[in-house]
Amino acid sequence: MESNPSQKETEELRQAEFDRFLWGADNETERGLALSSSTYLELQIERITRALLGHNRHSKELLRSDGPLGSFSARINLCACLLAIDEFEYKALSLLSRIRNEFAHKLLIDFAIPSVRNKAEELAKHVLAELDKSTRHKLIEPDRVYRRS
I need a labelling partner for 95 at 20 to 30 A (CA). Which of 88, 103, 125, 135 fits? Predict the structure, then answer.
């Protein structure tokens, strides 16, 4: 009889997976980094999608690679529709998906190519703007952020 891993064991496995991903990122080419980063996040979106839909024959059919929810972008959209991710995450993941597609479907490509560079710059600006907002929030309302109950 199979036993399901505890929540702690699952968290430890996911942390180890993340650590392996980060360690490997240092040794990647530009193509490898674009593909491995998006693949890591795609797996996380897949986990969220499977949790939202449950584990039954209908969800398996929808989530097959050739099914209606088989693509990264379809799963991003589903998660956004069901409010499992916010608008910031939706835009960041959508941009990353577009960057990944550039690398996956073109042979001679790198971040110097204008179409890729523009998407990467848009992603960086989007992330930095969100970081600025969260930092400003902490500076403007430090009591609310650090208040103890």
Answer: 135
